[in-house]
Fold:
Amino acid sequence: MTPLRAGIIAAVGTLALDQASKTWLLHVFDIAHRGAVKVTPFFDLVLAWNIGISFGWLQNDSQAAQIALMAVKAIAVVALAVWMVRSGTRLATVALGLIIGGAIGNGIDRLVYGAVVDFALFHVEIGGNAYNWYVFNLADVAIVAGVAALLYDSLLGAPAAKAP
Structure:
C-alpha cells in the first residue's frame, strides 16, 4: 500500500469513526437528555457544544464567526492535503490523514449543528478537589495524535517533504 493511500484511509477512517460516535451519542444514546454519564471513576460522557476552536478558545456564536472558522478550516484542510500528497514518509502521510479527517469531522459538526460536538471528559479528585480535563471528541484525539506523529517524524524520523 502506498503512503498516500494509507493517508487517505486514515482520513476517511477518522472521519467515519468521529461522525459515527457523535451520531450515536446524539441520536441513539440521547446524551442530551441523559446528562453526564459516569463510565469509570475518572471518565464521563457529557455533551458540550464547542462554538470556539481548540480547547474552547475564541468562543463566539455569531454567524460571521462560524463562517470565518469554517473558511480557515477549509483552507487548512486543502493545505494539509497538498502536504500529504507531497509527503515522503508513511508516518507523516498517515499523520496528515488523521489531522485532515479530524478537521473535516469537526467542520461537519460546525456546519450541521453550529458547534462542535464534544463528549469525552477525563477527571480526577485529589484531596476533595475535582480536576477536569477539556471535553473533547474522537476528531480531537486524531488531530492531537497526528500532530504528535508529525513532530516525531520531523524530529526523529526520516526526512519528510516540507509543508506547502
Observations:
- The longest strand covers residues 116-126.
- The two ends are 24 Å apart (CA to CA).
- The chain is about 60% helix and 15% strand.
